[in-house]
Design a protein that fits this description.
Elements: E1 3-6, E2 22-25, E3 28-34, H1 49-66, E4 74-81, H2 87-95, E5 104-109, E6 120-127
Parallel strand pairs: 4-5
Antiparallel strand pairs: 1-2, 2-3, 3-6, 4-6
């Protein structure tokens, strides 16, 4: 099995030796849990679940494209949400990035994420095929 690390200029990399944002193994891209947090965490305090999810799906799109795929190649997402009552906002953002066959999905309510301003975290798996760059 060959494992390749994928980076995207649109998605900030974590500090070295913490984790990889995306690894591709045998044509499957595994995208780590993404949040809307960039270099300025204070921006998040003004974002609701819809806005955070929209930014996150944009990051996932950037990672999948950097791996050689498209959003149509995403087969599974897992959404972590701090207030399950706001799932409609996440699904509204999701509809802006997926059409046709929607990915298999799991939604989990959690008591907290990495920082209080983070309301949503989403991870994804995409089948991009062995021929992808």
């Amino acid at each position: 099995m060959t494992i390749r690390r994928v980076t995207s200029p649109d998605v900030p990399e974590p500090p070295p030796e913490r984790w990889s944002n995306c690894l591709v193994a045998d044509g499957i891209a595994y995208v780590s849990g993404m949040t809307a947090r960039g270099t300025e965490a204070t921006v998040l305090s003004k974002m609701d679940e819809y806005e955070q999810a929209k930014q996150i799906f944009g990051k996932i799109k950037g990672m999948v494209e950097a791996a050689g795929g498209t959003m149509a190649d995403v087969v599974k997402i897992t959404v972590y949400l701090t207030d399950i009552k706001n799932n409609v906002k996440v699904w509204a953002a999701r509809r802006e990035f997926f059409t046709g066959n929607f990915p298999a999905s799991t939604l989990v309510e959690v008591s907290a994420l990495a920082a209080p301003e983070i309301l949503v975290e989403i991870e994804a798996i995409a089948h991009i095929g062995k021929g992808a760059r």
